[in-house]
Design brief:
- There is one protein chain.
- The chain is of the alpha/beta class.
- The chain has one domain (2-118): Rossmann fold, CATH 3.40.50.2300.
- The chain is 41% helix and 19% strand.
- It has helices at 10-22, 33-42, 61-70, 88-97, 109-118, and strands at residues 2-6, 26-30, 49-52, 78-83, 101-104.
- A five-stranded parallel sheet has the order 2-1-3-4-5, with helices on both faces.
- Helix 1 links the parallel strand 1 (2-6) and strand 2 (26-30).
- The mean pLDDT is 94.
């Protein structure tokens, strides 16, 4: 399985990449939504999962989600917002735009794995 980690923080990309790699995902990184869309345009195989920060330069996470949902080729990708935006109205906006789940930073590795398991993206027997 493939995952895309989209965050303008290199440290956060490393943390998320480490988690999904443990779960046997092949991970690719992008520093913002625009870079992620450019990478997706060049990919023949669409990732199964995208972990997306909200607040990024060039194109924020909500704009990325909206763009992905408008592209039939990318429709099957599972989108998870991973962000410090914790207001209920922001969560509702992200889910309404097409995100499947929402994880608020800071989070634990176990919490992230649980969220991915709820989405059916953790192989049986995988654990933290």
């Amino acid at each position: 399985m493939r995952a895309m980690v989209i965050d303008d923080s290199r440290a956060m990309r490393m943390i998320l990449k480490r988690i999904v790699t443990k779960l046997n995902f092949e991970a690719v990184e992008a520093g913002d939504g625009r870079e992620a869309l450019d990478l997706l345009a060049d990919m023949t195989e669409v990732p199964d999962l995208a972990l997306i920060d909200w607040n990024m330069p060039n194109m924020n996470g909500l704009e990325f989600v909206t763009n992905v949902r408008a592209d039939p080729r990318l429709r099957e990708m599972t989108l998870v917002m991973v962000t410090t935006e914790s207001e209920q109205s922001q969560i509702v906006r992200a889910l309404a735009a097409g995100a499947h789940e929402y994880v608020i930073k800071p989070f634990t590795e176990g919490a992230m794995i649980e969220k991915l398991a709820l989405l059916g993206l953790v192989p049986t027997g995988a654990n933290s």
